[in-house]
Amino acid sequence: MRPRTLTLDPREAAAILQRTHGITLTEPLHPLGSELASTFRARGSLPGAEPTDLAVKFQASDSTELAVQRWRAEVSQSLSDAGAPVPATVTAQDGTLVGTAPRSHAGTDDQADPVAVTVTSWVDASPYGALHTEQPGTALDTTAFGCALGAEAARMQQILATAPPPPQSITHTWAAETMDAVIQAHLPDVTNPRVRRIAEQARALLAREVAPLAPDLPRTLVHQDLHDSNVLADAAGRVAAILDFDDMLVGWRVAEPTVAAAYLARHAARPEDAVAAVAAGWESVLPFTPAEREVFTPLVLARLALNITVWHVRVQGAGAEQDTTADRADYARMRSTGSEDTFAALLATRNPAVEATR
After folding, report:
1. What region does 48 belong to: left with phi over 0, alpha with psi -120 to 50, or beta?
2. Per-residue pLDDT at 175
3. Which one, out of 99, 127, 187, 355, has a CA that is 20 to 30 A from the CA of 18?
4. Which residues of the chain register pLDDT less than 50?
5. Is 304 helix (H, G, I), strand (E, B) or coil?
6. pTM of the predicted model over 0.85
7. Same topology for domains 10-121 and 126-350, yes or no?
């Protein structure tokens, strides 16, 4: 089932939030960016409590999707309870971690679309990719941060390994195990020669260096999306929080550090040092198997290529990947910024004889 996009304006979102969680807002909802959901920063009070800052996510839902959405929230809360840097989830009025309410359409009282609402505590920190703009004068030491992020991801993985499996099989665009097929499916809509070349180079890497070792890669529950908007950093450049478990699935364990490394590399003067730092941090807690060590860097490159290819097609508005709203198109452009140059730099450092794709 293809995930559905849900776009709510702040007024409609506030009305739904009041119904699901009984939260009385003290100021208007502040929209945040998201690939598929409508997300907001909220300031308001739960019944009998003082006003506080919260993060709120609204998602399209049905009975099948709701089971998965509640499973994600339960796993996320178990991580928070275990001491991982994951925000706590606020219980809805029905006693669950994901509240639901029908979407009210003007002029209709029935056939309303169900909306799933997840509320978490607000973490006063910045996505590390935006640290320099949200906290001027703060520079991220990507090597130190990479080591810390790799270690934190490995500790989180140790907890996830004991979590309950999803209520149904999950796959999506960003799953590591299907990167080759997803890139291939997007190629007909690629209009940029450089993007096409990167996509083809990544497919060749996957076929040559990953596919032969795929049967030997450990599989487990993984977050699968430790990118630069889902990992928050504080003013001291430390990992403050890990957000957004919507891409969580059972897949290759090594996907966790490869995703983290791919996106951190985009912010490093020497991308290869950031990649090495994430790997070192991960292995300080959870050593790679021989197969994981062999595929780590090829998978970093493949994730960058997947990011480049998918967001290129979405920005172009081609086929089923079309982004129909300006804010989501802007989000698509933001998500791929820096990926092409980082891919080229990493590919060149692996093999100096390779002509960089700049």
Report:
1. left
2. 97
3. 127
4. 106-111, 319-324, 353-358
5. helix
6. yes
7. no
